[in-house]
């Protein structure tokens, strides 16, 4: 709600300034766009700097969730997460299938979602389990999402700079045209 209110306020200054040819409102609008640009650039830098922390936190959370995987089929969120990830990405455990024995020793056997057919699947051991862990896949997905967010922020920020420059040009041309009439 707060961001919606800020957007309405900024749009108000831009619209009313352009309609009424009010230089002050147009300058406020351009200043607010410049402020938004600075905030977006700082947010982009934070995402780039924060990247390693996300990766370490993700790995830790994945390892902790292994111990919460239920022994019996209960349909819990942890079970749904691991079963879906392991089947979809053809992986098992965090770094390998051996993680299950370390972090969930109560589990009598590997989850069924770790099973694969060695005759048809590439990342399958001769015992019929996925050999690679799921962490690299999830980490790559996280980085891809962050990269997409970063490029989107750069695109929006560039657009804001162009609009801000055009607003200032319009405000100055209007002022200059008034000076020429006097």
Structural class: mainly alpha
Give the count of helical stretches.
5
Contiguous uncertain segments of 5+ residues: none
CA-based shape:
rod-shaped
Query: Which radius of gyration do the C-alpha atoms yield?
Result: 27 Å
**Helical content band:** over 70%
The mean pLDDT is 83
Tally of extended strands?
A: 0
Listing every helix as H and every strand as E from the N terminus to the C terminus, the arrangement reads: HHHHH
Proportion of β residues?
under 5%
Distance between the termini: 46 Å
Major sheet: size, sense and barrel closure? none
Subcellular location: Membrane
Pfam families: Tetraspanin
Protein name: Tetraspanin
Membrane topology: Multi-pass membrane protein
Per-chain topology:
Layout: H1 2-19, H2 23-67, H3 77-89, H4 99-103, H5 135-181
């Amino acid at each position: 709600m707060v961001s919606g209110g800020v957007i309405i306020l900024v749009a108000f200054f831009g619209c009313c300034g352009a309609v009424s040819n009010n230089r002050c409102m147009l300058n406020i609008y351009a200043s607010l766009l410049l402020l938004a640009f600075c905030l977006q650039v700082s947010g982009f830098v934070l995402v780039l700097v924060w990247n390693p922390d996300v990766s370490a936190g993700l790995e830790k959370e994945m390892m902790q969730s292994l111990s919460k995987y239920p022994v019996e089929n209960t349909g819990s969120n942890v079970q749904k997460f691991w079963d879906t990830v392991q089947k979809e990405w053809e992986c098992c455990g965090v770094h390998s299938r051996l993680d299950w024995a370390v972090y969930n020793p109560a589990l009598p056997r590997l989850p069924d979602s770790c099973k694969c057919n060695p005759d048809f699947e590439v990342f399958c051991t001769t015992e019929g389990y996925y050999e690679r862990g799921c962490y690299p896949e999830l980490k790559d997905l996280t980085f891809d999402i962050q990269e997409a967010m970063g490029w989107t922020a750069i695109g929006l920020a560039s657009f804001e700079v162009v609009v801000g420059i055009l607003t200032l040009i319009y405000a100055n041309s209007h002022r200059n045209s008034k000076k020429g009439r006097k």
